[in-house]
């Protein structure tokens, strides 16, 4: 691994928050969504243009995406083929000047993974493969960003964990190891994505490595986010360190209910 970016000071956090003039720093908004590769919940319809419009309307500063296509080749009627470019570039166009992609799964037609779209400069990024042999491919996309006027960088990790409980437990250990080794203790952190944690086992483990889930902290339970048409399972999460939640929203109504098999979570955060 390349070396960590250093914290600018050992005194950057007080009570888990940025100490230097934090009241003068603006709030920012994050959104997380499993995009289902740009298809509606039952894969009946390609909805990427509608999804782009909906994401833009949130005005989110950081967008955490899972299951986004990096490349794909469609077979057309008559035997022809059509290559589709990166979905994250299409989604970011003209609104989010900085974006990065972490490829997780590769197959003959293309590949997909996690992506982060940002209105802030991305200083560094690295994709960590947390896949296990014989199971679906998964990854942690770690980014270091520099919000304007902040005295320190902001770390962000876009997460997609596995479907099996034992697999997720090992992947949570890798996530905590990443936080411990790659995110200096004096820096704020957002960890968001699809945790597939329908049993709610991630909270205790992530609390031990200093992370708090925004919906659990403010409402007592994680948000219901799957399936999109009738959300029952609490799969998607936004965890924080060194930041405070100000306003939260589960985007479960139209058009979000038909833009993926998950609904999006939106959070306004303060340093």
Write structural notes for this entry.
This protein is of the alpha+beta class and 271 residues long. Helices cover 18% and strands 37% of the residues. The chain has a single domain (25-270), classed as Endonuclease/exonuclease/phosphatase (Deoxyribonuclease I, Chain A). The chain contains five helices and 15 strands. Strands 3, 4, 5, 6, 7, 14 and 15 form a seven-stranded mixed sheet that branches. One of its GO terms (cellular component) is membrane.
List the helices and strands and how they pair.
Elements (H helix, E strand, L loop, with lengths): L12 E2 L2 E2 L9 E7 L13 H11 L3 E14 L5 E4 L2 H6 L5 E10 L2 E9 L3 E8 L9 E7 L8 E7 L4 H18 L6 E6 L7 H7 L3 E2 H6 L16 E6 L2 E8 L12 E7 L1
Parallel strand pairs: 3-4, 10-11
Antiparallel strand pairs: 1-2, 3-15, 4-5, 4-7, 6-7, 8-9, 9-10, 11-13, 12-13, 14-15
GO molecular function: endonuclease activity; exonuclease activity
Protein name: Metal-dependent hydrolase, endonuclease/exonuclease/phosphatase family
GO cellular component, one term: membrane
């Amino acid at each position: 691994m390349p070396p960590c970016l250093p914290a600018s000071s050992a005194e950057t956090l007080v009570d888990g928050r940025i100490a230097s003039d934090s009241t003068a720093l603006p709030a920012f908004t994050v959104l997380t969504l499993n995009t289902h590769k740009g298809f509606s919940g039952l894969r009946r319809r390609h909805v990427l243009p509608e999804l782009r419009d909906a994401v833009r309307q949130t005005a989110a500063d950081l967008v955490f995406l899972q299951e986004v296509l990096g490349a794909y080749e469609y077979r057309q009627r008559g035997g022809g083929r059509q290559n589709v470019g990166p979905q994250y570039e299409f989604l970011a166009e003209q609104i989010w000047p900085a974006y990065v992609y972490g490829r997780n799964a590769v197959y003959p037609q293309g590949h997909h993974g996690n992506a982060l779209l940002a209105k802030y400069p991305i200083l560094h990024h690295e994709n960590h493969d947390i896949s296990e042999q014989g199971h679906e491919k998964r990854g942690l996309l770690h980014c270091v960003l520099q919000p304007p006027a902040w005295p320190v960088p902001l770390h962000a990790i876009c997460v997609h964990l596995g479907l099996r409980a034992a697999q997720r437990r090992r992947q949570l250990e890798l996530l905590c190891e990443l936080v411990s080794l790659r995110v200096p203790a004096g820096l704020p952190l957002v960890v968001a994505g699809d945790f597939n944690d329908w049993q709610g086992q991630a909270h205790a483990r992530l609390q031990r490595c200093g992370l708090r889930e925004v919906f659990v902290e403010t409402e007592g339970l994680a948000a219901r986010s799957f399936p999109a048409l009738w959300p029952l399972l609490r799969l998607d999460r936004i965890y924080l360190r060194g930041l405070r939640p100000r306003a939260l929203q589960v985007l479960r109504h139209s058009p979000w209910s038909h833009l993926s098999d998950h609904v999006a979570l939106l959070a306004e955060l303060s340093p």
